[in-house]
Specification:
Blueprint lengths: L1 H6 L17 H9 L3 H11 L3 H7 L6 H4 L6 H14 L15 E5 L3 H12 L3 E6 L7 H4 L9 H12 L3 E4 L14 E4 L5 E2 L11 E2 H6 L6 E6 L2 H12 L4 E5 L11 H9 L3 E3 L4 E5 L2 E4 L4 E3 L2 E5 L2 E2 L29 E3 L2 H4 L4 H16 L1
Parallel strand pairs: 1-2, 1-4, 2-3, 4-15, 6-13, 7-8, 7-13, 8-9
Antiparallel strand pairs: 5-14, 10-11, 11-12
Helix pairs in contact: 2-3, 3-6, 4-6, 7-9, 7-14
Length: about 375
């Protein structure tokens, strides 16, 4: 951290302000240099309650680091300062403030739900967060491999948010056809957790990306079909589990891949083999046959071709796109009093972009 702090020129008009969540990088560095680490941590948490997490997994080469004239890796600073703050958050209320405004239900405890719940609770709302899984965190917990993110950070973030009065309930499934009553507003922050299916012969023999990341299992030879960062995570997870060969197959060329170039380079360094212009035709118990006639042997085939938010059969009342995303204009769905944000609306994006959306929606609801 010290090396990164020394690089900062304290620009009057810092280009690192490219952060979607408007993290005040200059102010944070100023406080840390002055030895006010706890205050710096509080500044970051108040702006972005997931700062310890984004410090670990944010693509800052696109944002703060990408805009900095010195190329400062702010993630290093953010990670350490926010980590310390979570160990001893200040202030540490002994009792949550009494809510004085409306009663809001947030469905989903991923980055959108966590960030929004914090901002609304601080503004005086009674907030409940419902999560269908047994543990909180949504895609943070179940969609990011352990080697990328220390999952204990999620629990620490939740702990601080709970101190501000947010009530979390796990194992709570919401039926979009019949939304719960008794709330002034409902916010759908359900993420994009429905894998898009591969409609070819033998597709039932494949495992889909989110299922694989949630419960990774070992295999000797793995084929991953896809081109995004999720596909890369699946390939690297297979490597971590000791796969002998990992082939990532994509129907176009590398220039068309959605995964970040840095991720592609890292995957190559770990032994992942990239195969282009490979359109799958048939999956068998022995591997994958492609339309060009090539066959890739595999005892596990992982399909990572994108995600939606909902099954189309559930889109009876809530407007949805053909890709299974929720339609929302200015966060408002077609149902009065029901809002949606994050990957459920946009498709997969970065955590920091979702945090920025949560801030924006909080400001809209607080008005």
């Amino acid at each position: 951290m010290e090396n990164e702090l020394k690089k900062c020129l304290m620009c009057k008009n810092p280009l690192c302000a490219k952060c979607p969540a408007k993290t005040d990088v200059r102010r944070v560095i100023e406080l840390v240099r002055a030895g006010k680490i706890a205050e710096a941590g509080e500044v970051m948490f108040d702006n972005n309650p997931l700062s310890a997490i984004t410090g670990s997994v944010c693509p800052n080469h696109l944002f703060c680091k990408g805009g900095c004239v010195k190329g400062i890796d702010f993630g290093v600073i953010e990670r350490e300062v926010s980590g310390r703050y979570l160990e001893d958050p200040t202030p540490s209320p002994t009792a949550p403030p009494l809510p004085t405004k409306g009663n809001i239900l947030i469905v989903g405890s991923g980055p959108a739900g966590l960030a929004l719940s914090f901002h609304l609770a601080k503004a005086g709302y009674k907030v409940e967060v419902w999560e269908k899984e047994e543990k909180l965190g949504g895609m943070l917990r179940y969609g990011i491999p352990d080697f990328r993110l220390d999952k204990s950070l999620i629990d620490k973030v939740v702990g601080v948010i709970e101190r501000h009065g947010v009530e979390f309930k796990t194992g709570k499934t919401v039926d979009l056809k019949n939304l719960p009553s008794g709330f002034d507003k409902i916010v759908l922050a359900i993420g994009a957790g429905v894998s898009r299916r591969l409609e070819i012969e033998g597709s039932e023999l494949a495992v889909y990306a989110l299922e694989f990341l949630k419960k990774p299992t070992r295999a000797k030879n793995v084929v991953v079909i896809g081109a995004g960062n999720v596909a890369i995570d699946c390939a690297l997870t297979a490597v971590e589990l000791g796969a002998k060969t990992v082939n990532l197959c994509y129907r176009k060329d590398e220039a068309a891949m959605k995964a970040y170039p840095e991720e592609l380079a890292y995957a190559r360094s770990k032994g992942v083999v990239f195969n282009y212009f490979m359109v799958p035709k048939k999956i068998t118990k022995e591997g994958v046959l492609f339309e060009n006639g090539e066959f890739k042997p595999a005892d596990k085939v992982v399909v990572a071709i994108g995600q939606g938010a909902v099954d189309l059969d559930d889109c009876v009342n809530i407007g949805c796109t053909q890709n299974g995303l929720i339609q929302a204009e200015g966060f408002k769905t077609n149902v009065e009093g029901v809002y949606a944000l994050g990957d459920a609306v946009t498709g997969t994006s970065t955590i920091i972009q979702v945090v920025a959306q949560a801030k924006e929606l909080a400001e809209l609801l607080i008005k």
